[in-house]
Amino acid sequence: MGKPSYILLVRHGESEGNCDKSVNRFTPNHLIALTEEGHAQAKQAGRVLREFLENEALTNACSGYHKNPRSIMFYTSPYLRARQTCNDIISGIQGLDDVSYKIHEEPRMREQDFGNFQSTAEEMEMIWQERAHYGHFFYRIPHGESAADVYDRVASFNETLFRQFQHDNFPNILILVTHGIWARVFLMKWFRWSYEEFESLRNIPHCQYQIMKRDVSSGKFHLKTHLKTWDDLPEDGIDEEEVKKEFSDELRFNSKNKLDNLNDLDIDSIIRAQKDAIKSSRSKDKQLKEAFKKAMSRNSVSPPAIQSSRFDHVRYSADNQSLDNSSDNLISN
Fold first, then answer.
1. Cβ neighbour number for residue 270 with a 10 Å cutoff
2. Which end of the chain is least crowded, N or C, by CB within 10 Å?
3. One Pfam annotation, family name (predicted)?
4. Is residue 12 flagged as an active site residue?
5. Annotated catalytic residue: which of 30, 51, 66, 111?
6. Stretch among 51-55, 114-118, 135-139 having the lowest mean pLDDT
7. Is 81 known to sit in a ligand binding site?
8. Are strands 6-11 and 173-178 parallel, antiparallel or unpaired?
9. Fold category of 6-332 in CATH
10. For residue 175, which phi and psi values (nearest 5 degrees)?
11. Annotated binding residue at 11?
């Protein structure tokens, strides 16, 4: 079987829509481009990839396989910002010996559809408050999608990957250039996480690799990048500024210096609703854990393999997102 040794997910670089949400009122989402900073982030990701490919540890780890360790399959979302990110990453590995790569554009890797053009301020306020209370995974944006809809696309895409993995000549490294929500849904589907676990995840930084590495003995992939969650924060650590920073990227309002100057949208009410939703979700998770532990304690004949809760597995770490992109992270994992 031609499974790759690595699957690397990378979110596109900073885009115009991340900095100025007003562009969403006039520019189709699939045509929003990278900023200068976004191009710089993507080029840095290309340099990191080059250092990784040059490292002898990669060659040594793949010495038992009859494939080029520097062979790469790029899959990219068709959105402009993802295309640009992919091109900038590839520019970082140009001229490197023995590197071979293929590029496929995959519409199923597009970001969650938030509707065609941004609605009025009043309509957007209602939508985001509803989403906060309803839940991010199942809430369907008017004229758009829910994360559950994205899940269906991801499931179909994964089946395509599994069929391709049947071919012995599949490249050694698979790189998926995509979007924040899509990447989290992909991980949710692949590792069979619950929707509660998905909703606990915070967004993925621009152009930082999320690393999945195949175990040689089992053939299974393990997530080597620890993801940041709301559960990492203490109860008094979920303040409104923390929530504002996180959700400004998804809620289509300006995330930088214009945040405090907006008059056409009641941001504070949205942030409060989101904060309440996070706390409510944490409370539900706590109740589920306690109920599971009680059930396990009553079931004395249960085999040891199921005595521990799936909630007890440590999948995330609070400090990972502060790490800079580096080849050391790829090699050490």
1. 24
2. N
3. His_Phos_1
4. yes
5. 111
6. 114-118
7. yes
8. parallel
9. Rossmann fold (3.40.50)
10. -120, 125
11. yes
